[in-house]
């Protein structure tokens, strides 16, 4: 039994010695970096900071509508007795569209004509009275010259002449008033026939033959139809108040119409509203936006074009389209307005840019180490990065983390415009650096200068080349 116990003790001591040896080797290997040196490294995603072109885009949605859309309403009320068009018809300028029953207005013309004749008869009577008074005055003046009558009688005759003259002038004005009423009645009759004010397409027809309509002299009147130039269409979109400041007249745009999902269209901004439209005022859903009109430059609705009108210039349509689109008012569309473009600038993915409070950066083991992990762009940036005496004051700056020798190095940057994926770096990077773009939690807060990092991706993606297509 003693021999067995002694052998067991030897085995146990041998196993214990091996365990201690492995622990010592592990500690030495970790300290010397032989193995396990990257076990505390933060796994990050990286991408190259390329030199590329960036186009700032404002995206908004809206409806297609004609640039010129005229609402036709009658000036007089009555029954429609003639309707020569139907919805979708193309009409030339001056073509009869509809006619309203004129009987009532013809009666008013006859009454006005009778009024004119009556006023002229009264004028003739006043003229005769004036002539009689003037003859009587002359006779009285002759008698007064012969001292046959008194001066008072002459003055009375002169007063009668003035009264007769005033009556004649009043009769003249009555004739003018009657003639004006006659012209008004005749104009009312002429308004019973409605003609097209321009060449275009009947885009909307809201009345039928025999229907009664109300004239615009009585409130708003009845909207009978709309005449539109369908070969000159535009998109009216609502641009948010935070983005309207970036939109300018003449900005180019890419238009996507829901009815033509595979066919892009080109546009240009032609009108920007000065007054805002507010929805949900006084609630948490309040939205303030500005209407913006974008003209569609690509040829469309050619069967609705007007012969002899101006055509689009070929240089305004840089991208050919597959076939001619048929747009209808009210179609939904999404517009990307290209507000600004910069060429050959350093850019990084948007998620690579973070903000840091320089007064709350973690302290390092020495000034030399701090200088090696917080890289400044120039001497001015270095002087600006000094922490103020009052540590409670925030010093918020935009930064980008890059990878150098396995460490996260923070670079303060100045940003410019951005597109859907990248943002312009005006200062702080030279281009070609490997920037850290993820994970989001690390970039936005937990990653600190000097942290050991390890890229978990297969390598940087090739530089993205912007396309205006």
Polypeptide structure, described:
The chain has 469 residues and is α+β, with helices and mostly antiparallel strands. The protein has five domains: 36 residues; 124 residues, conserved putative lor/sdh protein from methanococcus maripaludis s2 fold (Beta Barrel); 122 residues, Efflux pump adaptor protein, beta barrel domain (Elongation Factor Tu (Ef-tu), domain 3); 61 residues, OB fold (Dihydrolipoamide Acetyltransferase, E2P) (Beta Barrel), CATH 2.40.50.100; 88 residues. The chain is built from six helices and 24 strands. The strands form five sheets. Strands 2-11-15-13-12-16 form a six-stranded antiparallel barrel. Strands 3-10-8-5 form a four-stranded antiparallel sheet, with no helix packed on it. Strands 7-6-4-9 form a four-stranded antiparallel sheet, with no helix packed on it. Helix 2 packs antiparallel against helix 3. The chain is elongated and about 180 Å long. The C terminus is likely disordered.
Could you outline the blueprint of secondary structure elements for this entry?
Blueprint (H helix, E strand, L loop, with lengths): L1 H31 L9 E7 L2 E16 L2 E4 L5 E6 L6 E2 L4 E5 L2 H43 L5 H40 L2 E3 L4 E6 L6 E2 L11 E4 L4 E8 L11 E6 L2 E13 L4 E3 L7 E10 L35 E18 L3 E5 L9 H7 E2 L3 H6 L11 E9 L2 E6 L1 E5 L3 E6 L6 E5 L1 H7 L6 E3 L14
Parallel strand pairs: 1-24, 18-20
Antiparallel strand pairs: 1-23, 2-11, 2-16, 3-10, 4-6, 4-9, 5-8, 6-7, 8-10, 11-15, 12-13, 12-16, 13-15, 14-15, 16-22, 17-19, 19-20, 21-22
